[in-house]
Amino acid sequence: NNIEQGKNDSEQNAKENVENSQTENVVLSSKIGNIIQDLIYIPNIYSDSFFKEVEASGLDDRAKIMFTFAKIVTDDEYLSLRRKSEEYVGDDLESVAKKLFTNTSNLKHQEVFLSGSYDSKEGNYIILPTGFVEFNYIKDIPYKIEETGDNITVYTYRLYVNCNTIETMEENTNSTHTIYYDDTKKNKALVINDEKMDDENTQNEFLNSKISSGEISKDKMKQGVYKIQRKGNSYLIEDIK
User: Fold this and answer.
1) Residue 45 — φ and ψ, nearest 5°?
2) 61: phi > 0 → left, psi -120 to 50 → alpha, else beta; which?
3) Predicted structure pTM score
4) Are strands 173-180 and 124-125 parallel, antiparallel or unpaired?
5) What percent of the chain has pLDDT over 90?
6) For residue 137, which of 88, 200, 59, 64 has the smallest C-alpha distance?
7) Backbone angles phi, psi at 193, to 5 degrees
8) Which one, of 66, 181, 77, lies nearest residue 112 by Cα?
9) What is the DSSP track for 158-214?
């Protein structure tokens, strides 16, 4: 009885701590805001496949591997893990995944993005060359971050984009980004031809300006939600919807 009572008391205390925690807004441009945005960011070339997986099956093993793979092959933080002579990331993928997600137990390793990206015999992920003249990507634009104790929720606007790049005689490129509200590409929002959309570092700011001006309707956009846990000085993704 004493053990059961102690368990009940602990559960009640935990519940009260959550209820008593005050929800605060995190400024997007603050130190924590930037850390959170860097954590959830996925490069455009991998975003279409990743978000389609999340929207179809949630944050499953495949989605976690996709996200981690994209981080390793594009983020300079993981440059030392990219073994160019062998062209694989191998077991390093699982070690990085543990730094990104709350739950990575028993990941089911598999091919992601391109056929041949996983060597099941050797247990290695292979970095395959990619090149696109026209491709689709999905853009998640954070607009609000809430913090309740160690629980963080990020709210995003989600846009579906077709990018078409045409090479000119002067060897410059001219990219047209057609923005849609839906994945079926039936509900067009805007067609953009601007160098700020050609640079991923300036896309969010540029698209936010279009949202603020009303050129892109807030009411028509799908919204994404990220659940994040703070563990000491680290932030880990719990769920993505």
Assistant:
1) -65, -20
2) alpha
3) 0.80
4) unpaired
5) 53
6) 200
7) -130, 90
8) 66
9) EEEEEEEEEE-TTS-EEEEEEEESSTTS-SEEEEE--HHHHSHHHHHHHHHHHHHHT
